[in-house]
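DUF4251 domain-containing protein, Candidatus Cryptobacteroides avicola. Tokens?
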Amino acid sequence: MRRFISMLILLSACLAGAAQDKTTLQERIDQWKNDMAEFQQRRAPEIKQQEATDSLLWQQAWSAIGKKSFVIEADAITFKRGTRIYVNSTTNFISVNGERGVVQISPNSFISGPNGLGGITVNGRITGMDVSVNKKGLVRIVMNITGIGISAQLDISLFPGSDEAYAIISPNFNSQTLRLEGKLVPYELSRTFEGMSL
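Tokens:
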């Protein structure tokens, strides 16, 4: 009997401890929820400001596309086999200014290259430019560029509410596709430096 009473006391103590742990756990969860709500409230003005900035940059990019006067300043290039490298956006770009288009790839600034900047610069005439916007707000620009050193299709996408863009360059004479990622800016605001063309 004494053993039975000891077991009951031990069991009730365990149950009380479990209830206390459960209360402590619930208190921790509530505290975490309160902390997250406070954090979100403090960040709300910052998020709104960033959204407003992004919207302004998108409007600027969209206007530049409409004028056929823009540059994609690339900070990353992905080659055909998936190798991705980070590059200098002042020397790696695609520019469109009216009917003239320039593609410059200069991944290595330590070697002079044909353009004097560690890569190649090709320019040509823009034809067949088609601009569309899907239901999610993604802007897509498809065009051809043809010149002495280039004959390729450019497929450019501008993300909704941002100036972030990427371009896929598909040469017509081989399968050496490239993908450039960066920001789409108005031609007159571009910080790029053009090397010697082929």
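Helices lie at 2-66.
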